[in-house]
Amino acid sequence: MRKVVRSFDEWRAAARDLIGRRVAPEYVEWAGSEDEGDLFTAPDAAPAPVEPPAAPGLLLPRAFVEMLAAAACYSAADRWAFLYKLLWRWQRGERELMSAADPDGARLHNMVKAVHREEHDMHAYVRFRERPEQAGAPRFVAWFEPTHDVLPQVARHFANRMGRATWMIATPSATVLWDGERLHDAPPRMRSAADIEDSGEALWLTYYRSIFNPARLNADLLRSHIPSRFWKNLPEGAIVPAMISGAANGDRRTGQTSTVGRRGGATTIAVTPERAQPQRDAPDTLDQCRRCELWRNATQAVPGVGPKKARIMLVGEQPGDQEDLQGLPFVGPAGAVLDRALAEAGVARDQVYLTNAVKHFKWELRGKRRLHKTPAQREVSACHVWLEEELARVKPEVVVALGATALKSVMRDGGATMSAVMDAPFQHEGRWVVAVYHPSFVLRARDEESRKQAYEVIVAGLREALKLAPARSG
Ligand code: URA
Known about the structure:
Elements: E1 2-4, H1 8-20, E2 29-31, H2 62-71, H3 79-91, H4 103-125, E3 129-130, E4 140-143, H5 151-161, E5 167-170, E6 175-178, E7 183-186, H6 201-211, H7 219-225, H8 228-231, H9 240-254, H10 258-262, H11 273-276, E8 312-316, H12 321-326, H13 333-345, E9 353-356, E10 363-366, E11 369-372, H14 377-394, E12 398-402, H15 404-411, H16 418-421, E13 426-428, E14 431-436, H17 439-444, H18 448-468
Parallel strand pairs: 1-2, 4-5, 8-9, 8-12, 12-14
Antiparallel strand pairs: 3-4, 5-6, 6-7, 10-11, 13-14
């Protein structure tokens, strides 16, 4: 009896039916497509004996089903036959097949391990290349050559992480397209990574060069971490060999950081700190920023908004769920509290510049909700360059730091605390800084009394800011 199956679900349905009819594995020929099969076996050559009555319903433990589903992604000509053999043995009560001591069990464990490893590698080594905007075409494309059939689960992984940017991952056997909302099978359009146009690649290479630290290079570890089969499709694959040999030829000595250069102690540094650590350029646009990992899960970067030369700048922590979707700061629930406080303090929202210390939304999934996650100090520091750019451009006379994250960024001090500075405005780098609670602190307050107090602190701080930088008349 011949069974053609293309997916685990199809195999499962067919296998249940065959088990129900007690058809032994040796009577089934499994194929992954109509034209696949053993040249020397005519279809249906060996009629299966029918053995009524049917076996009772098959109940499998979840862990076993998950192993079967993972092994189904393993690229082997006999995978469906092997899985059926396992199922057959299971319904005969042979539980030892779950153990790696059993020959079939050992093979099953190895298949599952190899598939999980391939998923992990694909998460790590898929490189999206940005394409020029074009109606109907995905913004990011990637080419990958997986050893096993892990594209569907890897596509789900990226769908959960890349926000609403459209993308496509092509492999030699299948192509998946994310339209910003749903995943689709797409016909293969690309034959190799070289066919992919890439406007973002130069930027990526610049970034890769800038994070490459020759002083910390362990070439053997690098090679063992990134198996060589991935190199040809990694953009940095073309520049890494040159950087490795550069490190071996002396960059290692000069690649010390300026921090090390400034440090006291007995260490002698052969070059000046300026030469050892040239200034790194920021990416050209906020949209392209890859200085930390937050961009991966955000829909978009949220820049500041407000008059070009606002006298007051309000700095929040990071965009929330609504801000991430709309691309504007303070348009969600915290924004509503802020609006109320601004109105009460007599500050017009359109007269102030509103921005955040961190420009991408950091979140974790709880059920179906994206819950705000406080950015780590390294993310605040990585994003600081954008706040600096806004401060230099807008030149506000007063900066209102809304909460601790904003304060740390404004002060350029990861140890800055609200309690130390909240009672009065202070001067910092030639401008006034007013520190108040973040509006979401009001929303999270335990009871009405604390809510009221926190809110009053914000209103008072905004009034203070207005006094220090009265609105321009006319
Ligand atoms: N919280 C912030 O800090 N900023 C926003 O833009 C929204 C909520």
